[in-house]
Design a protein that fits this description.
single chain, mainly alpha
């Protein structure tokens, strides 16, 4: 019974914190306002969430639940392109909502601050672990360059998606899904423009016609 009550308190605090974060901003909001909204003491907040970052980490994990479910629904034989399309659709479906979008930059900042920890604990991040596994399988099938280990490519792809979303929420020139699909295309094919054949000078064309 006590564990259930503790979990209920944590969930109330979590939802209250996310709402206050979105309303007042993560940096400027007051812990007292979160505790009051959740109808608990200020000390209760720090018992469940030592820092505001811990709330944002939970928020990121919540955003990844539909993605993990979609991963498990994919057949083992799914191509790398099909897998990355699931990432695009899942990320955009969650983060394009206005209540979620407003916290994107804060979530990105938290992940950057956690890089040292993340580097040593890949399995602590469920999505990161699954993407790394799928990239290993794609590399074994010859779908990825062998120049860089698959787990590094996986991290590179996920961080680029998060960075692109953080930029998108400031300047949403394209729909989020199109932005993330562009990140995927650049990841798979590079940023170079297609090589076009050199243009034939007009004078040479005219000369060819006369002859």
């Amino acid at each position: 019974m006590r564990d259930k009550q503790r979990e209920e308190t944590r969930r109330r605090l979590y939802h209250a914190a996310v709402e206050v974060f979105a309303r007042d901003g993560v940096d400027s909001c007051r812990i007292e306002d979160i505790a009051q909204k959740a109808e608990v003491s200020r000390a209760a907040f720090y018992f469940h969430f030592p820092t505001k970052d811990d709330v944002l980490i939970d928020f990121l994990h919540e955003s990844e639940v539909p993605m993990i479910e979609a991963f498990h629904a994919l057949p083992v034989t799914a191509s790398l392109e099909e897998f990355l399309e699931v990432v695009v659709k899942s990320m955009s479906a969650f983060w394009q909502e206005e209540a979620h979008k407003v916290l994107l930059i804060d979530v990105f900042a938290v992940q950057l601050r956690r890089l040292r920890v993340l580097a040593h604990d890949r399995d602590a991040e469920p999505v990161r672990a699954v993407v790394s596994q799928r990239f290993h399988e794609a590399a074994a099938r010859g779908q990825l360059s062998p120049m860089i280990p698959p787990e590094i490519l996986a991290d590179f792809f996920l961080l680029n998606c998060l960075a692109a979303m953080a930029s998108w929420c400031v300047q949403p020139v394209l729909p989020l899904e199109d932005t993330l699909r562009g990140v995927t295309m650049l990841f798979l094919h590079g940023a170079h423009a297609p090589t076009l054949p050199p243009e034939v000078p007009a004078a040479a064309t005219a000369k060819g016609k006369r002859s």
